[in-house]
Amino acid sequence: MLERHELEAFLTLAEELHFGRTAERLHLSTARVSQTIAKLERRVGVPLFDRTSRRVELSPVGRQLYDEIRPAWSRVCEAFERAVDAGRGLSGVLRVAFNGPAAGQLLVGAAQAFRARHPDCEVQIKEARQPEVLPWLRRGEADIALTCHPLHEEGIVMGPVLVREARMLAVPAGHPFARRATVTLEDLARVTVLRMPGTLPESPHEDRAPSTPRPSATTFNEVLTLVGAGEGVFAVGAHARRYFARPDVVYVPFEDAEPVEWGLVWLANGATARVRAFSEAALELVREPARVP
């Protein structure tokens, strides 16, 4: 049986017909190549190459061996490369979730950049409600998700922040706050702050909202409907003005609240090459975290 280094030395020399160039391709010394070929010829029992001081040529036996081995070795190498690609995760399917239309728009751009680099990897994009993001990741329904940061959960990795946007307060159109240019965090103590599971983690109302029972909602449109009906107020990102314009809701900027941050998240034990490559593509797409006014 041929050893791999013997096979590579023989095939490379058969193609280069030059010991020096063969040594360069294999990153070996010329003497090492010569020794390997000589050992192989002793095992075969006849010369595989005809050598002179000026040239190297395949012998008849060497030509026959090359013609029979080269196609098989090419198939072996191709199969190995496919296995490496699969092991690195740059082929197959990457399932990406997003929460909200603004995140979806950014995600589409990231997916296009990723596909351009890794055309053998299929990207499947689907929308998740905010409370669904973590369950989807943990059940394997999504490999990576674009959602609000921070998301401090055990076993969850937060990628770099991709977008920062101003934090605003959604208030009923007839509310006194709707006539103001800005609101403050202190203002939240005087109103009912609505809840929606998993939305805008660590938002300003977390430690300032009243302890009285508050209406809750399970979707963003539902919470805005409650706002419009005068049931309370809700902290949102600035993108809501564009994607969720409503006649019964007014969006008022905070003057003292931290911006809303968006980024990718994934399971710590699910950091495949596909996931890392997608995160890199998304980060390069935005280049620097942008702030939406």
Give a written overview of the molecule.
α1 (4-16) crosses α2 (19-26). With 293 residues, this protein is α/β, with parallel strands linked by helices. It starts with a helix and ends with a strand. The protein is built from nine helices and eleven strands. The protein has three domains: 4-88, Orthogonal Bundle (Arc Repressor Mutant, subunit A); 92-163 and 260-292, Periplasmic binding protein-like II (D-Maltodextrin-Binding Protein, domain 2), CATH 3.40.190.10; 167-253, Periplasmic binding protein-like II (D-Maltodextrin-Binding Protein, domain 2). The strands form three sheets. A six-stranded mixed beta sheet has the order 4-3-5-10-6-11, with helices on both faces. A three-stranded antiparallel beta sheet has the order 8-7-9.
Q: Work out the count of structural domains.
A: 3
Low-confidence stretches: 199-213, 288-293
Residue fraction in strands: 15-25%
Question: Reading side by side through the largest sheet, how are the strands ordered?
Answer: 4-3-5-10-6-11
First and last CA, distance: 69 Å
Q: Overall mean pLDDT score?
A: 86
Keywords: DNA-binding, Transcription, Transcription regulation
Protein name: LysR family transcriptional regulator
GO cellular component, one term: protein-DNA complex
InterPro entries: LysR_HTH_N, LysR_subst-bd, WH-like_DNA-bd_sf, WH_DNA-bd_sf
